[in-house]
Amino acid sequence: MNYLTLKEYREMVNSIMDFKNENGEMPEYAQINNRKIPRENYSDMIERVNKFILEMGRSPKTVEIK
Question: How far apart are CA 47 and CA 62, in angstroms?
């Protein structure tokens, strides 16, 4: 399994948001540390992190890439 650290995850989300703000749509994939993460996977990651924060009251230390 592959994981992103919280710092890597935040960088990924920032790059996705920058792309969305510039192009009006989400990118087909996110790229972080030479890894391409398809939209389906990064959307799932964002949902899981948001759910974790709501339930646990804190950010996770790592985020699994599925």
Answer: 14
